[in-house]
């Protein structure tokens, strides 16, 4: 617990100092939103063993719900975020209630199918703005005091939200409830034989994961003052899988590192390619920014083949093996 508190304090100090070094706050907030989204997904895959291809539905539904509530109904930012979480959790209860009746690839395909239904609803619903999305959502004042139109104020709010969401994931896994989830992942028949209602635990974990994904979606909506169809597309569900696998499934910091790598690739690969082109004289690298999907696909293949446990998982395995040898 002391190590956890120390880690939180260190993260808070580093996060608070980043804007002072000239790093664009919007960029950091984007990383934190995706990192929280990946943590929510990892809670389900890494500790329950359920692979969902429909988590974009929760991110998108919370973004649209909170954006509509703030822009049209006049909700305050904090109430809009809570409303988005409620909608995402409710949707998670409905989709999870249907999906957990099956396992393996059938569970995965049900989540994907339900998420696509949600996507087409947002595409055709009149209040979502269709292909244009929900634009121009006012940020307002947090608790009527803090002006969120100031990017720095919003930044510190996003840092706080991320820390709360991350702590919820950590506390869940390290609670008796989390130990049951691990038991279900490791040996579901044995968990059933011990008297646990496995379906109920799976559903609770699914709803919690959906709620945290909704928190990420509502926060992302405030950062970019909009909710778009890309938040609910199946590609977003694929990206969060990629983030988690790159960082390390079943680790706490892994999804955060995976989110950082993916967002950096999406935003900086073009600059990196031009730098390589200027250094090597090979002009093909200057068009690397137009091939982000190909680059991420190659990284995914390399991780699957060489880093089966992800970056954090492989590092942890290396240091554990080294420590055991030294003893």
From TrEMBL:
<feature type="transmembrane region" description="Helical">
    <location>
        <begin position="6"/>
        <end position="27"/>
    </location>
</feature>
<feature type="transmembrane region" description="Helical">
    <location>
        <begin position="105"/>
        <end position="123"/>
    </location>
</feature>
<keyword id="KW-1133">Transmembrane helix</keyword>
<feature type="transmembrane region" description="Helical">
    <location>
        <begin position="34"/>
        <end position="60"/>
    </location>
</feature>
<feature type="transmembrane region" description="Helical">
    <location>
        <begin position="284"/>
        <end position="307"/>
    </location>
</feature>
<dbReference type="Pfam" id="PF02653">
    <property type="entry name" value="BPD_transp_2"/>
</dbReference>
<feature type="transmembrane region" description="Helical">
    <location>
        <begin position="80"/>
        <end position="100"/>
    </location>
</feature>
<dbReference type="GO" id="GO:0015658">
    <property type="term" value="F:branched-chain amino acid transmembrane transporter activity"/>
</dbReference>
<protein>
    <submittedName>
        <fullName>Branched-chain amino acid ABC transporter permease</fullName>
    </submittedName>
</protein>
<feature type="transmembrane region" description="Helical">
    <location>
        <begin position="154"/>
        <end position="173"/>
    </location>
</feature>
<dbReference type="InterPro" id="IPR001851">
    <property type="entry name" value="ABC_transp_permease"/>
</dbReference>
<keyword id="KW-0812">Transmembrane</keyword>
<keyword id="KW-1003">Cell membrane</keyword>
<feature type="transmembrane region" description="Helical">
    <location>
        <begin position="239"/>
        <end position="263"/>
    </location>
</feature>
<keyword id="KW-0472">Membrane</keyword>
<feature type="transmembrane region" description="Helical">
    <location>
        <begin position="203"/>
        <end position="227"/>
    </location>
</feature>
<dbReference type="GO" id="GO:0005886">
    <property type="term" value="C:plasma membrane"/>
</dbReference>
<dbReference type="InterPro" id="IPR043428">
    <property type="entry name" value="LivM-like"/>
</dbReference>
